[in-house]
Amino acid sequence: MNREELEVMDARVFTELRRPLRAVPLLQDVLGRYDATHARDVALYRSWLAVALADANEPEQAAEEARRVIDTSGDLSSERTAERARTVLHRLQEYEDVPEAREVLAEYRHLLLA
To answer: Looking at the record, which segments are called Disordered (predicted)?
Structure first.
């Protein structure tokens, strides 16, 4: 494991514990340094960032990250990224009253049925 992977693991734990103030900075830092050619990993990391942003009551940013997750993972045949995309969309559902979240959900709601 390298430094980025360890930081992502820490951030994932903070995300699952619903500690977004700890998760978000870690994930943003890692994504800022991460090699974008690793599309699957980037999509997964962004999915945890989207959930952490939703937990931090930042639905606009969460919706933006959700779109990035789906756009990045759309060309991938990874069930794991597809499941994470669905997790992010489920998490955004409580923010349907926010225009950005509503737009992403309207565009990608069909993925929740997959």
So the answer is: 61-82
- Residue 92, token pair as written in the block: 């955004």
| CATH match for 3-113 among 3.20.20.140, 3.90.226.10, 1.25.40.10, 1.20.1300.10 | 1.25.40.10
Q: What is the pLDDT of residues 71-109, one digit of tens each?
A: 887 665 788 998 999 999 999 999 999 999 999 999 999
Global pTM value:
0.92
**Contact at 8 Å (CB) between 106 and 63?**
no
Domain boundaries, the chain: 3-113
Instruction: Please choose, from the candidates 77, 86, 80, 78, the residue with its C-alpha nearest in 3D space to the C-alpha of residue 108.
Output: 86
